[in-house]
Amino acid sequence: MAAKQGERTRRRLSTEERREQLLAVGARLFSESPYDDVWIERVAEIAGVSRGLLYHYFPTKRDFFAAVVERESARMLRMTAAVPGIPVREQLAAGLDTFLEYVEAHAHGYRAFHRADAAGDQAVRKVYQRSLAAQERQILAALAADPEFGAVFGARPDTELAVRGWLAFTTAVCLEWLRGSELSREQVRDLCARALLGVIAP
């Protein structure tokens, strides 16, 4: 009797809540296994929905993966957002620590994301470009508001290009690190921090 009452009182998820649930399951599976080893059926099974319902939200596995990456990219931006009033130099190491911890924990998904972009997958490429632009804007805004860098920010037309190049550099370093580099996370963090400060120093 209690079980039946529980079934009747169980709240039905809204469309947005169901979508979020599916993406959360996908984020976990793509972080644990290579892209080709993640099966849509398994995602549906864990979420307790039919395969057809999952395809209703995401027409293809690649669309699902792109949506997972977009969700995770937005989460990473929130996690590494600059704190107003604190110098960029002080925040850089902490922000990179958070980023590298995430990359290490989601190594499979991170590699798959960049492989798909390099292969020209349009669904992932759009997510990649939006994510890159958002990261770039976030860094540029932090630099512009910083007392050390803000004073010369407007006089440096190369700053935007330098930040874009640094993001590409950081991606290359992370991918090499995940391949089995002997560098520790702290060493990778310091390398990336020095690289950014080197190209934007007044």
Overall description:
The structure is a single chain. By secondary structure, the chain is mainly alpha-helical. Helix content is 78%, strand content 0%. The protein has helices spanning 2-9, 15-32, 40-47, 51-57, 61-79, 88-105, 107-118, 122-145, 147-153, 159-178, 185-200. The longest helix is centred in the middle third of the chain and has 24 residues, at 122-145.
* Helix percentage: over 70%
Q: What structural class do the secondary elements suggest?
A: mainly alpha
Order of SSEs, N→C?
Answer: HHHHHHHHHHH
Helical run tally: 11
Could you tell me how far the N terminus lies from the C terminus, measured between alpha carbons in angstroms? 72 Å
The 3D shape can be described as: elongated
How many E-type strands? 0
Strand content: under 5%
Q: How many strands, which pairing sense, and closed or not: the largest β-sheet?
A: none
Radius of gyration: 20 Å
Low-confidence stretches: 1-10
Mean pLDDT across all amino acids: 87
